[in-house]
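Lab notebook, bench 4. Still working through the backlog of constructs that have no structural model yet. Next entry is a single chain of 451 residues. Request: give me the structure tokens for it.
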Amino acid sequence: MKSTTLGLSLLSVLYLSACQTSSPGSGLLGPRSPRDRYLKELKRTNEGLSRQWEEAGKNALDFPVSVKFPHKEQNFFPTDLPLAFGYRVTIPRGRRLEAVVSSNPADSLYRVFLELYEESGDKYKRLTFAEADSNRLAWEAPDSTTVIVHLQSEAAQTADITVSLESHPMLSFPVARRDSRNIISFWGMARDGGRRSHEGIDVAAPRGTPVVAAANGYISSVGVNNLGGNVIFQQVENGGITLYYAHLDSQMAVSGQRVSIGDTIGTVGNTGNAITTGPHLHFGIYQSFRSAIDPLPFLSLPQIDHSNSTLPDKQAGEWKRVAGKTLDIRTGPEAARDTVARLSRNTMLRVVGKAGAWYKIWLPDGKIGYAEAKSISPSLNSLRPLTVDRERPLWMLPSLDSYAVIRVPAQSTLKILGSWKTFLYVEEPTGKRGWLNNPAALPQAIMAEGN
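Model written out:
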């Protein structure tokens, strides 16, 4: 069973190191990714930091969030918290995943590493990665495939990164100056009085409109039949599918000819059994030369999220607290998603991203999920004062394995801002904040007094 190893043991890179683990993609055959090369360099210069950074990368694969196309969010990587993010997403048959990252501001100098993995039990196979000079990667899925997009910035650098996960069609549209909005008949519709169903789509266009190759490949057959009239079959390069263009007015390609996307191979007509209809292209896709499959996913318009996912500066990387009685942290930015954790009022959490109206949340036990922004207090006013009876350390994180950011003298009056388990998040008289271990009384009891 997978366990969360990143969380309370995550400490400042200047003080402690974590346990040795294998990094995502380690031991893989094939070319080394920019992330591989960076990790090798980091191990040589700072072994403790490299262990934390590598563990963060593994944790992102073990516990990814779940999202749907299209998805866009801003991520914040604090200097003091080694983080990586994993996004589990299903690429439907016939679609191409495009993952695009951008730094905020655009001229930021920190490095960003973008990789794609396929999960197999407790192991991960790296499918592809973005090159060092690129901000995107792409992956096609002739069959429905679930993958994990892995995002990580270089260590010990504050980074502000927006990631967009987009769904694009695998094929180019087969009629010039037309798109999926011009489809007039879809897969599965009844034909011949219900004796058969439509094994393709029909695209309306004026007679003579160019029919163009929807993919790179070669023409496997040019001919005539009773149903399709003038037809062309094209074998897709490295795709395992055959494309069928029917009812052509003219055929402008020959068998064996290599074609590229956009090459004109014929013109729209109404030959064959379409003689009584208006001119249109019948377009079909066959898998393994036998079974027909629905062409629509291969051709429909890209799915791109244009929403505003900008994280307010005052929220990025900051500790916040639960505003209501309880708050469910979700596996994805939707109310219907599974619950990662249920938090009580005044429990502390850290905002590390934003997707639409949802904040991405990091919890001190290492869990990452989403919460509606309106459910989190925008500011941290004092819940109640607390006077310490002796000198006490304030910790960087709610863990005794952390390090002290400051020691407060006896009789100091602290402002209680929130809690996590047996720790209180407090502010000392000079304005510095940290975590106070409170073994004598559960924070929940103190929090109840502050409500």
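Notes after review: Residues 320-375 form a domain with the SH3 type barrels. fold (CATH 2.30.30.40). DSSP finds four helices and 33 strands in the chain. Flag for follow-up if needed.
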